[in-house]
């Protein structure tokens, strides 16, 4: 495995792979890797000859009062996990490599970036789309892997790839959970033991609604109410919304198209997100 920190070196390292028409997979991350990231790496390894993992805590996707400076980091551990997982290249640039002086060109996503997290994190998806587009240009992967946990991110990236004619297949990998069903997240390390107990309300609520859906409930308000009952105990519920799986606009009753029940909540001072997909069978 190679660890690379500059774009020039990255291009050199990938030149042979591209010339030989090898299938290159990219797994973009902000590091502090866990089993969710490893599932993305595994998916890439299964279908690509070369797997590039980027580790970059992207400043442009953090708001001024968010956790950029305290975001968990442990590069040595990440490097070892990548090596053990069979990654070909770890790309870990410093910020100036991605955002040189006088940087001023951004990718501006549209409607998909407005609801859900977009409503609470202004500029977040602009930062995400920009850095992902830049990573796509640097690595020129055939396929890129993203986690379903960040459902809106997947939608924004997919749209961007279509709208900007980026010849890259976007694969969404199902959310990996702890044994008690808490969605894995680098931010889980902020949780105290008490927070950890409270955080379980999120997946409990989502799975209660998914179960009701499985038993035939198709009414949007009722499904949301079922999830909400569990979420009453969290410190601050930012949103709990059932949205259309493609447009991310509010889903309509009775549900007849794939939809996502999405949550963002603060547990203590930690913001957590999660979702379940509800897929009506025809
Ligand atoms: P992050 O490092 O949090 O920016 O995440 C990097 C990638 O890993 C994103 O595509 C996330 O959606 C994905 N990811 C994060 N947590 C999980 C999880 N629990 N299961 C699957 N993918 C995840």
Automatic annotation (TrEMBL):
It is found in: Cytoplasm. Pfam families: Pantoate_ligase. It comes from the Bacteria. NCBIfam families: panC. PANTHER family: CYTIDYLATE KINASE/PANTOATE-BETA-ALANINE LIGASE, PANTOATE--BETA-ALANINE LIGASE. Its EC number is 6.3.2.1. This is Pantothenate synthetase. The keyword Cytoplasm applies. It is an enzyme of class 6 (ligase). Catalyzes the condensation of pantoate with beta-alanine in an ATP-dependent reaction via a pantoyl-adenylate intermediate. Homodimer. Belongs to the pantothenate synthetase family. Keywords: ATP-binding, Cytoplasm, Ligase, Nucleotide-binding, Pantothenate biosynthesis. Beta-alanine binds at residue 61. The keyword ATP-binding applies. Pathway: Cofactor biosynthesis; (R)-pantothenate biosynthesis; (R)-pantothenate from (R)-pantoate and beta-alanine: step 1/1. The active site is at residue 37. It catalyses: (R)-pantoate + beta-alanine + ATP = (R)-pantothenate + AMP + diphosphate + H(+). SUPFAM superfamilies: Nucleotidylyl transferase. The reaction proceeds by a bi uni uni bi ping pong mechanism.
